[in-house]
Amino acid sequence: MTMLDEPRVEGAEELEFRDRVRAFLDGHCQKRRSGRSADGVADRPNDDGEAEGTSMLEADSASLIAAAKAYQAALVDAGLGFLTWPKRYGGAELTKRHVEIFNEVAADYEIPNAIFTIGHGMCAPTLLEFGTDEQRDTYLPDLLRGDRLWCQLYSEPGAGSDVASLQTRAVRDGDEWVLNGQKVWTSGAHYCDWGIIIARTNPEAPKHKGITMFVLDMHAPGVEPKPLRQITGAANFNEVFLTDVRVPDADRLGAVDDGWRLSVALLMNERVAIGAAGGGPRDGGVQPLIRKARERGLLGDASIRQGLMQVYIQQRLASWLGQRTRAALKAGRAPGPEGSLGKLLAANIARQQSDLGIAIAGAAGVAWEEGDARGARWSTAVLTAPASAIAGGTSEIQKNIIGERVLGLPKEPQVDRDLPFRDLLVGTQR
User: Fold this and answer.
1) What is the pTM of this model?
2) Which residues pair with 227 in a beta bridge?
């Protein structure tokens, strides 16, 4: 037994809290079939009424959203949501040890909260760090309780990995800003209430220095989300058209033209939200693969066994990295390059796991009986995996960050960094 696996002796208060968490989850969630080894079923809805990446759930988007909101509201009302956050916004003002206990207990349950990943993992920390007291009081309670869903509007047709090349414009008009432009790959825009958006406010400045961040009402006149059909058949991403959208200056986050600094902070939170969840404290997604291999009589196959062991090892590494990242956050340290490490590892695991799954499933992975609700799971995993290396910043971007901030390698040359944005031939700008 290693030090990492040695049981920790808990006091009466910790044991009581553990029982309290378990009682709550027993009343609001389903138990996993095999501890943390959920079958990969996501619960972020798309406009077809199915869960993202699967056809296993026979529920429409409205019911998925309603279930997630009911769970989150009950969690916050029970004093178990955002355990280390201020009570003023719906938190519990408890310790990081309480968070550890909650996560340990929650590992055995199906938690219906995937639709809050962006709002809770990215937008909320950004509002808490950069918002005014009035903005925090206005937005955080409903956001944390799940009453309102949030999205993030960054990428554009001509600004993907190079987000600073964005062309959506925000022009000051008295106490308001008028936004015009287009965003793309916006997760959940078609069912979200609010979003955090970045727009260009000064084309005379270099591209990183003329950007401002705003809170955007997704139901405001001129905001038009259009879902994009994915290779899986789902439609979770959107292009969003903005036509003369008016945003009050009171909904500006940070100083004018200082949005890039805030954007980087949100991106770091995004990578932590994606990467720090990786694997959990147990064996993550390897158990469904083991069950399928046993079912098909392949557990004795040396190559399959080697593949299973590789997935297990990678997920254990992701688990420990996630624990380290979460511990740093609970200690008050800002997200750093460990978020990029976790994000890169998560993308590698997704590809490795999906390739192994389809190999184990064989013909059943590409053809199944009509009406088999779980038949598409293996092929869907293969089709979904490449997106893991793109969403939240490509794997190439993560490697650059790791190279510069962890290995101390020199930055890539940037000949356009100090030129006025209006002079650059970037994206769709000509």
Assistant:
1) 0.80
2) 238
Encoded tokens for 356: 């192994």
Which amino acid is present at 235?
A: A
**What single DSSP character describes residue 274?**
H
Query: Annotated catalytic, 270?
Result: yes
Question: 14-18 long-range contacts, Cβ below 8 Å, gap at least 24?
Answer: 14/97, 14/101, 17/98, 17/101, 18/101, 18/104, 18/105
Report the C-alpha gap between 324 and 338 in whole angstroms: 9
- Considering the domain 276-393 in this protein, what is its CATH number? 1.20.140.10
* Active-site pick, 50, 239, 270, 338: 270
Calculate the alpha carbon distances from 232 to 218, 229, 357 in Å.
26, 8, 16
The whole-angstrom separation of Cα 330 and Cα 347 is 25
Distance between CA atoms of residues 216 and 219, nearest Å: 9
Residues 65 and 124: beta-carbon distance below 8 Å: no
CATH class, 150-259 region = mainly beta
Range(s) within the chain of domains with CATH label 2.40.110.10: 150-259
pLDDT tens digits, 27-47: 999 987 654 433 333 333 433
Residues 260-310: pLDDT tens digits? 999 988 987 776 666 555 433 334 468 889 999 999 999 999 999 999 999
- C-alpha to C-alpha distance for 162 and 393, rounded to whole angstroms: 10
pLDDT tens digit string along 331-343?
Answer: 666 667 777 888 8
Cβ burial 399-414 (10 Å sphere, 16+ → b, else e): ebbbbeeeeeeeeeee
HSE-CB of 375 using CA atoms within 13 angstroms: 10
> For the chain, give me the number of helices (H) and strands (E)?
12, 10
DSSP states along 111-132: ---GGGHHIIIIIHHHHHHHS-
Specify the domain boundaries for CATH 1.20.140.10 within the chain: 276-393
